[in-house]
Amino acid sequence: MNKIAQSVRLWFAPQRVRDEGVTPDYRFSLANERTFLAWIRTALALIGGGFAVDQFLPELVWGVRAGLALGLLAAGVLCALRAVNHWVRCERAMRRGEDLPVSRFPTVLGIVVAVVAVAMVVVVLFGWEGR
């Protein structure tokens, strides 16, 4: 638990990352930042998709609509949190000269998005009213 708390503290005090190791080539730090921003854009798209499902599909059975919307919203929240965590972990690894961290999160996110997409295909094929 202490390791998790330390990681979360670094989210709010990224200047403390500089206390570790040596400064990497700035291009690597900027690439890490671009990756972070890509994850944030993905999170925003997922959140927007969740709101769109909820707001623009009122004819859809409530449980299905809420499930799809909540799935997208939850994926967006997790994606945003993971973006910060991954940025810190990569920055620390670069400063320490370690291998970059690996993660199963992209796989999990891809599966969640695929499940929601398949559910939406079913909704489109069989109608909004859930007969």
Detailed description of the structure:
With 131 residues, this protein is an all-alpha fold. 76% of the residues lie in helices and 0% in strands. The chain is built from four helices and no strands. The termini are far apart.
Mean pLDDT equals 88
Shape: elongated
**Based on DSSP secondary structure assignment, what is the total number of beta strands?**
0
Q: Tally the helices: what do you get?
A: 4
Q: Segments where pLDDT lies below 50 for 5+ residues? A: none
**Gyration radius over CA:** 19 Å
Strand content: under 5%
Distance between the termini: 48 Å
Helicity range: over 70%
Element-by-element helix/strand order: HHHH
Characterize the main sheet. Answer: none
- By secondary-structure content and strand pairing, the structural class works out as mainly alpha
Q: Summarize this, please?
A:
76% of the residues lie in helices and 0% in strands.
Features:
elongated, mainly alpha, 0% strand, 76% helix, 131 residues
